[in-house]
Design goal:
- This protein has 378 residues and is of the alpha/beta class.
- The longest helix has 21 residues.
- Strand 2, helix 3 and strand 3 form a beta-alpha-beta unit.
- The strands form 4 sheets. A 7-stranded parallel β-sheet has the order 3-2-1-4-5-6-11, with helices on both faces. Strands 7-10 form a two-stranded parallel sheet.
- The radius of gyration is 19 Å and the shape is globular.
- It has 14 helices and 13 strands.
- The structure holds nicotinamide-adenine-dinucleotide.
- The site of nicotinamide-adenine-dinucleotide has 25 residues, from helix 2 and helix 6.
């Protein structure tokens, strides 16, 4: 453990900002690059000049950010299944990466009730396969395993979960991510503790929102879909509170964490929470009302919502992350408020609907975020 407040970001990178110079020319292997978060991260890494290889199944949605923003143009994109250990291992060893970021997963709670076996196969054994491949590759210096805030045993507490709290998870998705955390911890202790072994950490983030998410059963895509079809938005749990954050926030956390793993491997090889500010842990109803108002203000049709009272599978109602450790020790902090995040999402979807070049648009959005990132960090 690092002392409370002790900084683990060395080499002058103690301000918690993503350092473009660090990433320029780095060989990076990213799983899940065809997904929502993976597409944004791929574009960000491309923009900073990383030599990027992605490994994932085909994009999970149609439309998909991966295609809309032409993500494959600036990288080596491999379509493959992390449940196939040898295929993954061959791809990773061939890519010869210095840094690995593992995001491929079955990421939806409700889908995990329909296919628990597939969810565990991808999220647990897929993580085992990834860590085995990292063991085989001689090149890897740092790896970040992406899990979720849902990995914690949820006690419906009013305060945030800290990194040393118990893993758990009520539903198969949440639990599979708790398992992925335990797998990561066991591999770190069993195989990666030495001076010349890769530094391994995990990143736990909350619900992300952003332009280009078309997944089923996620709040913002559901809102935009209903608005697009001129229908009322159906909301399952209007009072549920989640740690909402713009997609670029946790991605900046993973990037800063990799920088720290590179600079201070022994100290950074732990689990890290990347959540929003306390005041941005808002009920679903607040988000829906704000999105509907923004849409109407921006010239769209009037939008509204209604409570879906049908019987639903269990979902956590209150979940908040304590981000004190990442703030104090990585210097990382959230940049955009939730209100700014929602403004950006509405602007993104309006640009897409009007036929804008979304590759260029995403780069502009990354510039704006990176600007906020650097000016806040300075
Ligand atoms: N979106 C969120 O709100 C959120 C919150 C916390 C954590 N996460 C985590 O972030 C990561 C990315 O989530 P996302 O929202 O971009 O999801 P997504 O569904 O958009 O993308 C998932 C990615 O994983 C790939 N994938 C799925 N199964 C695979 C398999 N068997 N083999 C290879 N690739 C496979 C998909 O092809 C896709 O590239 C996941 O690990 C997820 O658990 C997401």
């Amino acid at each position: 453990m690092v002392n409370a407040g002790g900084n683990v970001a060395g080499n002058g990178r103690s301000n918690g900002a993503v350092d473009s110079a660090f990433w320029a020319g780095k060989r990076v292997f990213l799983t899940g690059h065809t997904g929502f978060k993976g597409s944004w991260l791929s574009l960000w890494l491309q923009r900073m000049g990383a030599e990027l290889t992605g490994f994932a199944l085909a994009p999970p949605t149609d439309p998909a950010l991966f295609e809309v923003a032409r993500v494959a143009d600036g990288m080596t994109s491999i379509i493959g299944d992390i449940r196939e250990r040898e295929v993954l291992e061959r791809a990773l060893v061939e890519a010869d990466p210095e840094i690995v970021i593992h995001m491929a997963a079955q990421p939806l709670v409700r889908a995990s009730y329909d296919d628990p076996v597939g969810t565990y196969a991808t999220n647990v054994m897929g993580t085992v396969h990834l860590l085995e491949a990292v063991r085989q590759a001689q090149s890897v210096r740092a790896a970040c395993i992406v899990t979720t805030d849902k990995c914690y045993e949820n006690r419906e507490w009013a305060w945030g979960y800290r990194e040393d709290e118990a893993m758990g998870g009520y539903d198969p998705y949440s639990n599979s991510k708790g398992c992925a955390e335990l797998v990561t911890s066991a591999y770190r202790r069993s195989f990666f503790g030495g001076d010349d072994t890769p530094a391994i950490a995990s990143g736990r983030a909350g619900n992300v929102i952003g332009g280009g998410d078309w997944a089923l059963d996620r709040l913002i895509p559901d809102i935009l879909r209903a608005i697009g079809e001129g229908e009322k938005v159906l909301i399952r749990n209007p009072l549920a509170i989640r740690p909402w954050q713009h997609v670029l926030e946790p991605l900046s956390g993973y990037l800063v964490l990799c920088q720290a793993l590179w600079d201070e491997p022994a100290k950074a090889s732990e689990a890290w929470n990347f959540g929003p500010r306390d005041e941005d842990a808002r009920p679903v109803q607040w988000i829906v009302e704000r999105m509907c108002a923004l849409w109407s203000q921006n010239g769209g049709d009037k939008a509204g919502w209604t409570h879906d009272q049908s019987v639903q599978p269990h979902e956590a109602h209150y979940l908040k992350l304590d981000i004190s450790k990442a703030r104090a020790q990585l210097g990382w902090q959230p940049r955009w408020t939730l209100a700014e995040a929602l403004d950006n999402i509405v602007a993104w979807h309006r640009a897409w609907a009007s036929g804008a070049d979304m590759h260029a648009y995403c780069f502009d959005e990354l510039e704006r975020f990176q600007g906020a990132n650097q000016s806040l960090a300075a």
